[in-house]
Amino acid sequence: MHRTYEDKRTLVRKKGAGAKIRGWLFRALPWGIVVYLATGFYVVQPNERAVVRRFGRAIPGVVGPGLHWGLPVPLDRVDRLRVFEHKRVPIGGLLMERSLGRRIQPQELECLTGDYNLILLSGIAQYRIRDCHAYLFACVDVPQTVAMVTTSVFCELMSRSGVDSVLTVDRLTLQSSAQRTVQEILDQYGLGVEIMSISLEGLSPPAEVANAFREVTAAREDAQRLVNEAQSYANSLLPKARGEADRLLQEAESHGNEILARAQGNRDRFLQMVGELGTNRAANLRRLYWESLERILPRLRKIVLDRETSEQAGLSLIEIE
Prior knowledge:
The chain is built from ten helices and nine strands. By secondary structure, it is of the alpha+beta class.
């Protein structure tokens, strides 16, 4: 009887403890439901856009910045994307990695030009998210895809150009052509990204022939420098020659105008004299004679003699009336 009584007391205590636990559970259940439902709240930052997947299926549209509520975890899954951030991916492996001794696969770095020369390529591609749904679900690894497409496009473009033009004047053309072509390919893939820029950080020949390329580049630069110096010298001489030609032309025109004016004056004076000869010919001839003497005698050496001495010397006399 003693053991039976103790067993009853133990059973009563256990029932009381179980009732107490159930009471606590009933009181905590509403709060647990509230906490569980609160997991449906999420915040989207101003530079983000969110895509909600409900029961594994993406809901159409994107969620803008602010505080939002959906179904609690795990019924809803929210993927936040920074759509205004420019993402960077290396193209072809950076030359810095090669200098640090890191292993780079040759096919990722070496390109063959149109004249069968190898070029080491490194660059940076920058892109941003344009379509959130396509970015999340069209491809498993978007950065790797962008890098591989860009590398492939660069290899194709360089196969159409010579090594000299690639290393010198065609860098900007290659970048713009690559950006346009890569964007077209990614649009065909439907990745939902926009290529912002593609820059070539390094274009160089292999180390085995780098010295020869440097010598060729130096010779080309010297030739271009000499051409520029000659052009500069020609440009400095050309204005002087043009100025001298203009001066001579102006002097010739001025001299010609002076001679023309003098000839016209002489013509007018001669015509006037011809007209006066008809009225008083003897007086006009005498005046012309004296005017001629006035112009001639100052330039001559003159010796004045009397008539007797002149006759003895056999000299002719100029009779002045």
